[in-house]
Amino acid sequence: MKKLILSALLCCGFANASITDCQELYVGRIWVEKGVGLQGVVFLNNKEDGGGSYWSYFVGWSADERKEALSLLIAAKASGHRVNIATEDSDGCGIEKGGTHIKSVYLANNP
Predict the structure, then answer these.
(1) How many Cβ atoms from other residues are within 10 Å of residue 104's Cβ?
(2) Separation CA 36–CA 72 (nearest Å)
(3) Quick one: how many helices (H) and strands (E) in the chain?
(4) Could you say which of 32, 71, 100, 106 is the most buried, measured as most Cβ atoms within 10 Å of its Cβ?
(5) Confidence of residue 15 (pLDDT cuts 50, 70, 90)
(6) What's the chain's average pLDDT?
């Protein structure tokens, strides 16, 4: 029985957050500004991190799209659920270097 449990643990990968590929991220700081709404977000590798990515911005998003994204981000932050994002950067991520514009944000498969 121990061998079965050990082999099950070894064969299955664990999801790790990574600000290098924009997958399985935690929501850090959320920036909402009067007259604009959702401006940007900082993502974290771990919930306990004191710092994470640079700000990623919602440039070109309509007011309704910003509201929808804000709802998703707040729900993910409150529940500790992870998100995946894509940016307009050439590599689809780039949140480590800053000044990125978010193209999409969605809940990850695993909390």
Answers:
(1) 11
(2) 18
(3) 2, 5
(4) 100
(5) low
(6) 86
Q: Which candidate, 39, 44, 4, places its Cα nearest to that of 23? A: 44
Structure tokens belonging to residue 58: 């919602």
The residue assigned the tokens 């790790």 is 16
Task: Give the list of residues 6+ apart from residue 56 with CB closer than 8 angstroms, or none.
Answer: 40, 41, 42, 43, 85, 87, 95, 100, 101, 102
Q: 45-95 pLDDT, tens per residue?
A: 998 888 889 999 999 999 999 999 999 999 999 999 999 999 999 999 999
- Which amino acid, residue 55? W
Q: How far apart, in whole angstroms, are the C-alpha atoms of residue 55 and residue 58?
A: 10
